[in-house]
Amino acid sequence: MIPYKEKKVISIGTVTELTGLTERKIRYYEERGLISPKRTERGTRKYSFSDIETLMNIADKREEGVQTKEIKKDMDNEKKMANIRDDLLRGQLNAHFNLRR
Amino acid sequence: MIPYKEKKVISIGTVTELTGLTERKIRYYEERGLISPKRTERGTRKYSFSDIETLMNIADKREEGVQTKEIKKDMDNEKKMANIRDDLLRGQLNAHFNLRR
DNA sequence: CGTGTAAGGAATTCTGACACG
DNA sequence: CGTGTAAGGAATTCTGACACG
Question: What is the Cα Rg of chain A in Å?
Answer without folding.
Answer: 17
